[in-house]
Amino acid sequence: MVLKIAIQKSGRLNEDSMKLLKECGIDIANGVNKLKAEANNFPLEVYFLRDDDIPQYVEDGVADIGFVGENVVYEKNKKVQVVEQLGFGKCRLSIAVARNEEYNDVNFLHGKRIATSYPVIVKKFMQERGVEAEIHEISGSVEIAPGIGLAHAICDLVSSGSTLFMNGLKEVETILRSQAVLIKSIGFTEEKQRLLDKLLFRIKAVKKAKNNKYVLLNAPDDKLDEIIRLLPGMKSPSVLPLAQSGWSSVHSVLNENDFWDIIEKLKEAGAQGILVVPIEKMIV
Ligand code: ATP
Ligand code: ZN
């Protein structure tokens, strides 16, 4: 029994998808022009596909699971289940208009033509807002549509916004925030589920490790209580005496979100020699 996973063959999600599997300790034999590959040390078979096709393959059960952008999952609207957000491939699906347009709200789009590769998502958004717009589906280079008079607005994926800027456009509405997710097919045998749980356990450990840092610092003993209070740790920080009396070494784990805040407070409280080390895996 193997778990069959579909990932993007080439494009923005390919590298991070392969990297995540590798960080999960899964070793995949690399072939050139590969369509399918097998893992050496995990019951996993990898199918390399166009991202647009992944939801269909997973719905049909040709692949059991897949890594794909949420934007594609919602657009394709197949019978698949989103199991886990993967933390890469972050982007947003936004509406943009020419920079010189006077845009106040979505009513601007009433009676206008919108070019997009995401007709399903855009139609739903317009219906929810009660705006009647003509949706014109095109498959690529959406950003040039206003410039050549094909549409008044576009709806496309944005990350930095530089493509919009270069085409004289401005972002006016965000319809969806997206990242890569793990999807699974609906009918899953217990055996497959056990394999998926094993993979998910590893994915969660990798994700958690990325969001946390291991911190080591030296503290004068008379400041220890105050410093320990600032540090959450996995249970509580470890404290080891230094060779020099009156000083201790404190070890702990910090979440990336409050990281700088806490480091500043630690320094103020008298911590010295603060070292911050990446964590490879984190199992709680
Ligand atoms: P394919 O040949 O597989 O159909 P594609 O051209 O449709 O590839 P890519 O441009 O490689 O797709 O993007 C794949 C996914 O990467 C997108 O669906 C989206 O989830 C994510 N992504 C992240 N940032 C961006 C961005 N700035 N622009 C486009 N997609 C992005
Ligand atoms: Zn695609």
User: Distance between the terminal alpha carbons, to the nearest Å?
Assistant: 29 Å
Please identify the top-level CATH class of the largest domain: Alpha Beta
Oligomeric state as shown? single chain
Number of helices: 8
**Share in β-strands:** 25-35%
Helicity range: 25-40%
Number of strands: 15
Please tell me how large the radius of gyration is: 24 Å
Strands side by side in the biggest sheet: 2-3-1-4-11-5
Can you walk through the features of this model?
The chain has 284 residues and is an alpha/beta fold. It has 3 domains: 3-88 and 179-209, D-Maltodextrin-Binding Protein, domain 2; 91-178, D-Maltodextrin-Binding Protein, domain 2 (3-Layer(aba) Sandwich); 212-278, Alpha-Beta Plaits, CATH 3.30.70.120. The chain contains 8 helices and 15 strands. The strands form 3 sheets. A 6-stranded mixed beta sheet has the order 2-3-1-4-11-5. It has a 5-stranded mixed beta sheet with strand order 8-7-9-6-10. A 4-stranded antiparallel beta sheet has the order 13-14-12-15. Helix 4 (119-129) links the parallel strand 7 and strand 8 (134-137). The protein is flat and about 75 Å long. The structure holds adenosine-5'-triphosphate and zinc ion. Zinc ion (ZN) binds at residues 50-52.
